[in-house]
From TrEMBL:
Domain of life, per lineage: Bacteria
Native source species: Nocardiopsis suaedae
Gene3D superfamilies assigned: LigB-like
Entry protein name: Class III extradiol dioxygenase subunit B-like domain-containing protein
Length: 229
C-alpha cells in the first residue's frame, strides 16, 4: 500500500560537483528535493522504491549504482560498475543525502504505454504494507525561449497541466497524459508519473507542489503525495 510519495526532477546539475560554478542556481530546487525525500524517510514505510524513466522496464536491486561521467564529471553514485540510468542514479543520490538507501530501483521504459505504467504502479504498491515511492521525472525539455530541444509553444501548457495534476494528486489526469505528445515535447517524466498514478490507485491522496520551474528550458517539479486514510 502506498504510504508516501515524492516527485523530483533529475538534472545532472542538481549535484553540486557537476554544476560547479553554477551550483547555487539550483539551491532552492535542491532544498525542496531534500524536504520531500526527507518526508519519505520520516513516513515509516517498510519499503522505499525509486522509480524513473530509462531504456527499458526492469528492476535493479538495492546494491545498484550509477555514474555521472557521461554528463561531464566522473561522479560515482553507489556501488560500481554503474547500471542505473540517470533518473535512478540521481534518485539514489537524493536518498543518500537524507541518510537512507532505497530498497529497490525500478526503471520504466520511456515508451511504456500508460496501461503498463499504471499496472506496474499498482504492483509496486502491493508489495508491502507501507510503500514509499521516490518518483523521478522531468517535464518538457522544449520550453521557450531556450531549451535543450527546439522550443515548442505547446510545452508550457503541457507542463502547467502536469504541475496541476501533481499538486492535486490527480491520478486520472496523470493517467491521461498522451505518450506521443510527451515524446514530442521531450517530457521524460511521463511514464514515471503514470506509475505513481497506478500506485495511488483509487485512494484519496493529498498532493502538494513545492516547485515548478524551468531554469534551463526544462520543466522541473517537486511534489509530495500523502494518502488520506
Amino acid at each position: 500500500m502506498l504510504t508516501a510519495a515524492a516527485v523530483c526532477p533529475f538534472p545532472p546539475l542538481l549535484v553540486p560537483e557537476v554544476a560547479a560554478g553554477a551550483a547555487a542556481e539550483l539551491d532552492d530546487l535542491r532544498r525542496e528535493c531534500d524536504a520531500v525525500v526527507g518526508a519519505l524517510k520520516a513516513s515509516g514505510a517498510d519499503r522505499l522504491v525509486v522509480v524513473g524513466p530509462g531504456e527499458r522496464t526492469r528492476r535493479h536491486g538495492a546494491d545498484s549504482g550509477g555514474d555521472l561521467a557521461p554528463y561531464g564529471v566522473p561522479f560515482p553514485i553507489g556501488p560500481q560498475p554503474p547500471v542505473l540510468p540517470l533518473s535512478l542514479a540521481i534518485g539514489r543520490w537524493l536518498a543518500e543525502r537524507e541518510g537512507t538507501v532505497p530498497d529497490a530501483y525500478v526503471e520504466v521504459a520511456s515508451d511504456a504505454e500508460p496501461g503498463e505504467c499504471l499496472a506496474l504502479g499498482a504492483e509496486l504498491a502491493g508489495e508491502a504494507s507501507a510503500v514509499a515511492l521516490l518518483v523521478m521525472g522531468d517535464g518538457s525539455a522544449r520550453r521557450p525561449p531556450s531549451s535543450p530541444g527546439r522550443p515548442d509553444d505547446r510545452a508550457p501548457a503541457f507542463d502547467e497541466e502536469a504541475a496541476s495534476a501533481l499538486a492535486r494528486a490527480d491520478t486520472d489526469a496523470l493517467a491521461r497524459i498522451d505518450p506521443a505528445l510527451a515524446r514530442e515535447l521531450m517530457a521524460a517524466g511521463r511514464p514515471a508519473w503514470q506509475v505513481l498514478a497506478g500506485a495511488a490507485g483509487g485512494d484519496t491522496v493529498k498532493g502538494e507542489l513545492l516547485s515548478h520551474q524551468a531554469p534551463y528550458g526544462v520543466g522541473y517539479f517537486v511534489a509530495r503525495w500523502t494518502p488520506d486514510r
